[in-house]
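Action item from last week, closing it out:
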Amino acid sequence: MKKRYLVFPMLLAMLLLTACNTSAEKKMLYDEAPSRYEYGVFVNMDLNAGDALTDYEVAFNNFADRTAYVFYSEKGQTPVTEQMAGLTAEDLAALAAEGKAQEIRSNSGFTPLSKTLKSLEGSDFKASEKDRFYYIYVAYDAPEGVTVEKAARFLTPAKGPDALKKYSASSVGAIVPAGGATSVFEESSSYSPGYVDALKQGALEAGVETPRIAVIETTMGAEQAMYDDFFFPDGDYASFGDTLRARGMEPVYIPLAIDNYREVQNTRYFADLIRSCHIVFFTGGDQAYYGLALANADGTPSLVAQAITDVLSKGGTLGGSSAGAAAMSGTVLTNGASGSYQPFYWNEAETVDITIYDAETVADNDTVNEGNNMLYQSIGFVEPVLGEDVLLDTHVDARGRVGRLIAGLRDSNPAGLGIAMDETSGIRIDGQTKTGTVFGTSGVYIIDGANAIWSPAGTVGEFGVEGLTMHYLTAGDRFDFAARTVLPAEDKQPITTPSGAVHESTDIFGTDETGTTVLSLAHSAQQSVTAEVENVSTPPFLTGNSFTVTFTKTADTVCYTNGKPFPNEKYFADFLQTTVSGLQVDIASGPSKFDPNAASGFEILSAATEDNAYAVGITFSGPLSVGFEGNNKYFLDCEEAENIPTDYVEVYDASGAEKPQDRVYTFRIMDGNTLRVVLAEDVCFAEGDTLVVKTSITSMYGEQPSTGAVFRLTGGQWVLEGEAAAQPFVAASAVTEDNAYAVDVLFTGPLSVGYSGSNDYFLDCGQAENIPTDYVEVHDASGAVKAQDRTYTFKILDKNTLRIVLVDDVYFAEGDVIVLKTSITSADGANAAEDVTFTLTDGQWVRSGETVVEPAPETPQEPAFTGEFKAVSAATEDNEYAVDVLFTGPLSVGYSGNNDYFLDCEQAENIPTDYVEVYDAAGAVKEQDRTYTFKILDKNTLRIVLVDDVYFAEGDSIIVKTTVTCSNGDKGAEEVRFTLTGGQWVPAD
């Protein structure tokens, strides 16, 4: 193992370095001393004494021989460093003269502390003050000013406070694991008073007014970060210590960090300090930090870990959120397991040996199989309470972790229990009664493997289980761990008349998908639902087996509700608080979805520039291979030296010079079929640029395009080489606004926007250098210039429309002329192809070279449509409760609200079935929504909407009647029937 600079090598070296400690009978805390080439502050302590300053000795190794000063303080490094800032060598000497520091020499071995040395604050070290411990520092003057270094070892009495005689009203303690985002801060949206109550419950029942709580924040890594979080406020949030005081507890800081754990974990003083507290609390982060910091190098419990067990065995409480909860198990799920598909795929958890990690590598607990480094053996604090170990997992719905808990249960305790807690919720497990009570605003799953039949481990792709039992509990529900039964809250009653549709998930372990599926099944009359585990589109999983999860109500299943919604809108706000007891879970593996013949040709189709002008989306005919997955999915990780963006896509400007691509963000998959190409910082796509897309890009099925493609940016559009370019960028038409002092000019492509305020403008004409007439000139019929407004002109109404505004009290009039110049540019940087002139003639703006359109007569004319009017096709919307029917001509619009409708079906006399009838496969009528049905999406498309919670399904039929009328008054030529077949609406022959 790599040496850590605060660990002491070799007793012999210590004896050589320490002139004042030659007695072989004097037992020191460590068996090793620092070598001359290890820099830092080193502390030794006489284990036979330890209650006097002279029992401590300090060595300071530095790259230079220098005078330094050792001192001690109750304050952590942040406030001490701030206090020392600006001091000089003379100031340090003055501290020594006051007895608040002791002069030592660097690189000279160990020096005992003087018995008269006071703390930096001026107090004496007293072994009788059991709740006080001190940091040991060395300060020295350097060219950059006074530098302060801290020792990993603390100045403490040999023994800490006495253990409590009574921790709670129970003889056995309680554990309170919470699922993460379960806050004790009232300012937080995830504040949980139930969590605070559950932590304090045992002590309060014993009559303790202000319970002591030992706080261990090891997951923050460095002790300095822990100290700052505990003692100092952070923005709008009070310090963690002050927050616990405000919640009615007395916080006790335990400085067990990753950068000092070997010096703290076996110090009796800190073990005693823990035993003096009613509650011990683990914070969140990475649970592997706890596995490392609480265990000795051989895996046995440290003195601090033994103290926590002692607190529990005598009635105390252990609480923790997120990683702090997961770390309570004897077998712990690591932070390295990526999701649920990966452990199913590998079908055998790879166990991490925490003892091989040190402070530098603990967070990188990777092993051979990606996403399968699932478990490590730890101290285990559940078993002292329950008499058996239980696997714990957190953030389970928010991060889709129920599947990995199930896989972990099979490989740790296949007949045992797993508890999966969602965010803002947890469970208080009482060791005396062996019952757990749920608190919080979401839910807790309990997975019972007692009757499960597991598939054998080890065969890749064949994970499976039958007869697993799942319970889902919400606030107030209890679970009897001895009998393994659910005890619903008193205000909950069985659901006797279930109704509603079951959520059909395409990714059962996606965010909130497990909870949504289980809750909808509980309230539905349906007996079971099956959902897929989404595959992971990276090798080797791409070609791996598919997995399905089936939830089934059995004769033992009972569902309860109290009729109240979930209290936090972030978590299942669409459901009532629900308890599910005895749901059966079966997981089966199936054949791979990988089908090399599925794509039927993988080709490059098109390219489009994004609004930001530095990214292009290239669309392919099939799904792309994804080679790297981080916060986003990428085609390949171009940060790696071997992955070169130009191996896949080359970008050139109009002159043929290469334009650099971004190595970090390029090749992001926007959706399954679209690849994003991103240019380097401050480089944008411009007219004439060329994209060369190569055949080295592969589909999800391993195919390569048969040919590459070259796209050229022409007229603001990416044109595939060999295809005709789009129409040039010019002003196409103009229309006067109702206010008569503004004109809207429509261009053939999107405009450049040069200024953004409350609105977007073509240019900011409030600036002196921007002259409206450089872009647009306005003349009256005599040729005199009409002044344009410098502030409001050139507003972009939409991407293609430019607004021209005249100055106050000046209006457009018959005979006025507008000249749109070529200086107006498109979003892609192209100038307008030509100047265009519009003249206001008979109330219409007529483009140069075009004829005047005759004004419409006072009586409406017959619309242009003259063909046969009928429904020709139908398509279901993604929401599955609406269908869009396309007609051969424009529809009549009889009602206008926020949207336009064919008719107002809210009126009693307007009956939807007079126009469209909807039936299910059995011929029963499916009811249409009277409010939202018959919405006109465009002139020729009619939307049909079903009532709430009713969806279109296979075999449904739609009959479109001849009463639906065309805008010219024609009725439908014939009644048309569509049937939903194979997911598509098929017209009757």
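Closing note: The radius of gyration is 37 Å.
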